[in-house]
Amino acid sequence: MSTGDLALRREIIAACLQLEAWGHVIGTYGNVSVRIPGGLLITPSRVDYHVVQPEDIVAVSLEGQVTAGTRLPSSELQVHLQIYLHRPEVGAVVHAHSLYATALSCLHGNVPVIVEEQSQVVGSEIRCTRYVPAGQHRELGVEVAATLGESMAVLLANHGTVSCGRTLAEALLTCQVVERVAQMHLLTSVAGSAIPIPPEFVASERARWLYRYGKAEDGAGSS
In angstroms, rounded to a whole number, what is the distance separating the alpha carbons of residues 148 and 164? Predict the structure, then answer.
């Protein structure tokens, strides 16, 4: 195992523990992956995050074949795999069962862009898949990739969320934003319907966050 590979495996384990600390997963409900050349590294199936070791993380090719590891990959491997096949810019995927976002997934509705961090980090409304029964793993993966489109996050009907990023740190941030937006959406629905941000400003904020945010050309005084 190379030094870089070991570091990535440790990063995946740390991400799983962080998701648990946030309350975004319970037990082993949830999974994390990172793209590597020719495939991905993904959490193993049904191994507690507090005992999982770097060697337990499974390497899988883009054809879906295990290339390294003695554990079974997550049963939701196809969700990660289909996203990587359809979205070459995605470098990491996080599947979680956070409270508010999972509650919204039970309504089977889409969440419009209601706050700036959603426009910047997610880049669009957060769409919900149709319901795919447990065990239909490839069908779920295809459905997730199709519903995701060019967005960075999606709700899985009656199930949870999938969040993406160019890096694992970014995918974790997306996961946090999705949960906060879900909570805000539910809170505003008590008083009526939130007024969405106009699409042209969603696009401009996404581009600013991707290419200029935190750089000198973004202008003094920017948040």
Answer: 10
**pLDDT score at 117:** 97
In CATH, the architecture of 3-214 is 3-Layer(aba) Sandwich (3.40)
Instruction: Tell me the three state secondary structure of residue 155.
Output: strand
What order do you get walking across the sheet with 153-156 strand by strand? 66-68, 58-61, 39-42, 31-36, 92-96, 160-165, 153-156, 127-128
Across the chain, which has 223 residues, the per-10-residue mean pLDDT values are: 85 97 94 97 95 96 93 96 98 98 97 97 98 96 98 98 98 98 96 94 95 75 47
User: Of the candidates 80, 87, 44, 86, which has an alpha carbon nearest to the alpha carbon of residue 61?
Assistant: 80
The residue written with tokens 């941030």 in the block is 173
Is there a contact between 12 and 34 (Cβ–Cβ < 8 Å)? yes
The tokens of 219 are what? 């202008």
Note the pLDDT of residue 1. 65
User: What residue segments make up the domains of the chain, in order of their start?
Assistant: 3-214
Q: What are phi and psi of 198, to 5 degrees?
A: -55, 140
| Catalytic residue annotation | 76
